[in-house]
Amino acid sequence: MKISVAINTWNERTTIDLCLKALKGFADEVMVVDNGSMDGTPKLARGWIDKLNLCGEVQNIKEKNCYNIRMTALNACSGDWILMLDSTTILTNDLKTELLNHARNAGKTFCDVKSLNLIGDYKHYFRNRPFMAYHRIFLPKGFNYVPSIGRPTFRGSARIATNWAVNLSRVRPAWRCWYRGEPFDRRYYTRGNKKWANEANRQFKWINSSEYYDLIEYVETEEGKTFQDVKRIAPDWYLNQLRLEATPLEKHMVEKLPEVLLEELKNPRYKLIKEGEEIVGRHPEL
Question: Which of 20, 63, 99, 147 could form a disulfide with 68 if both were Cys (CB 3.0 to 4.6 A apart)?
Fold first, then answer.
């Protein structure tokens, strides 16, 4: 039984190594497809694949629809089972064991997985939504799907994983978080507010525009903010999000963190700075 992992990236130099390290001993094949990163993500991914002795490839394409990025990665995989990951998703040991057991015993049934939402560093979670919704990410070879914006819609029966992954999409450079924007806003998670969420999601609006093939160009033209403008304003915006949402991990969450994150905690690349109970910054960025 061969397990492949399909990963899509865009400016993920602070997460790609953690994602790949967690695949050691689980993945027989890793396919990374990068969508025009400016921060050296493809080179880092290639370096870590080699360093970890993983079998894999790194492709570079320029495509505005994340669906096409994901399908390029999925179609490059040759495994009997394929795990579709964002490069901000880190597998826990318990989840890896569960997925391997699922692959051995589940026939053609998909597996849906949820992720613990960290924010700021590796010791805090996103108060407003501790866990992401379940996503169908573990797929048998020959899966059925229909196209959609963002990710394919897979057709077939599925079981829900009892274990979870960790999501680091809110533990990234402030500017990278700012470009996505709306998932940090509490209104995004208010029932019945889907229309507002789509309008506030820069990435969603960019994908649906016909004129721009680059998110940074879209923001500069439509909002009048250059990349340098965003890098200047994003830290204060991000600090406000941290003060509103960053909550210390509960004991049961810490106990299930992936080994790669427990190792990261010994010398973390990101660490929240507090005065008393108030968050006043983040090392080394804020």
Answer: 63
